From TrEMBL:
Compositionally skewed regions (Gly residues) per UniProt: 81-92
Species annotation: Kitasatospora albolonga
GO biological process terms held by the UniProt record: carboxylic acid metabolic process
UniProt region (Disordered), positions on chain: 44-130
Name of this chain's protein: Chorismate mutase domain-containing protein
A GO term for molecular function: chorismate mutase activity
Comp. bias (Basic residues): 53-75, 97-124
InterPro entries listed in its UniProt record: Chorismate_II_sf, CM_dom_sf, CM_II_prokaryot
Domain Chorismate mutase: 162-246
Length: 246
């Protein structure tokens, strides 16, 4: 059956007629319809089954119409979330409606390149109080000792063994001595290694001995793991060159 409202002819079945009338006509009649008329204007109304009342509440947040008078298609939520017309929405100079809230109209908008607002806020860093001050020994990046400061505001920690800056200076001096000894030992080792290589070559043998190298590497690996293996390989390279064979 075909019914007409003051704007458009709506073709409805007899069964739908009672609930599918034009939105304006329903309002005028003061009746309650179970038909959803969507689109903001009944020119574009269509029919679909009414949601369960409980779902209706969840699906439809509280809206109020922006501005006085009859709504023009843009609604804002009274709870302040979402919705609402952007600047530029409305009727243009050519009389055509401009909707710049999203979709195609958004892409046509000069500000369309601006990324949409994130739907979910990024988790913010919890306020954990002021950052811990960097300890003096961590701040020192050169061999020049940092000036000793007494930060009375530094929090007292349970790390009672943490050395003070003056201790660090002394300990680093010791490390420098150890490193020098290591370098001297490596140099000494190289001399011994090259002597062996020369003797082996002089005796008609090969310069290197891979089985021996394995036995050299193993204790380093056992002591220090993968870095120990790397140390041994570095030592061998220093002592016999980059070629493990020859
Ligand atoms: O022990 C040897 O036979 C060496 O020649 C010394 C050494 C080493 O530097 O440890 C060097 C080369 C060999 O391939 C194996 C080990």
């Amino acid at each position: 059956m075909t019914r007409s409202c003051h704007h458009r002819r709506l073709t409805l079945s007899d069964a739908d007629e009672a609930v599918g009338e034009c939105k304006t006509r329903r309002r005028q009649a003061g009746t309650t319809s179970t038909v959803n008329v969507l689109g903001g204007h009944h020119h574009h109304a269509y029919l679909r089954p009414a949601p369960h009342p409980a779902h209706r509440q969840a699906r439809r947040p509280p809206y109020r119409h922006r501005g006085p008078g009859r709504p023009r298609g843009h609604r804002v939520r009274v709870d302040g979330h979402g919705g609402g017309a952007r600047p530029g929405c409305g009727t243009g100079e050519d009389g055509r409606r401009r909707h710049r809230c999203g979709g195609r109209a958004r892409r046509q908008h000069p500000q369309a390149l601006r990324p949409r607002r994130r739907r979910h806020r990024q988790p913010q860093r919890q306020h954990l109080g002021p950052l811990m001050p960097v300890r003096d020994e961590e701040a020192v990046t050169s061999d020049v000792a940092a000036p000793v400061t007494s930060d009375v505001t530094a929090p007292v920690t349970s790390d009672v063994t943490a050395p003070v800056a003056s201790d660090v200076t002394v300990l680093r001096a010791d490390i420098d001595l150890v490193d020098a000894e290591i370098r001297a030992l490596v140099a000494r080792r190289g001399e011994l290694s090259r002597a062996i290589q020369r003797a082996r070559i002089a005796g008609g043998g090969r310069r290197t001995d891979l089985a021996r190298e394995t036995r050299v590497i193993t204790p380093y690996t056992q002591s220090f793991g993968r870095p120990g293996t790397a140390i041994a390989l570095a030592l061998l390279e220093i002592c016999r060159g980059t070629k493990p064979t020859g």
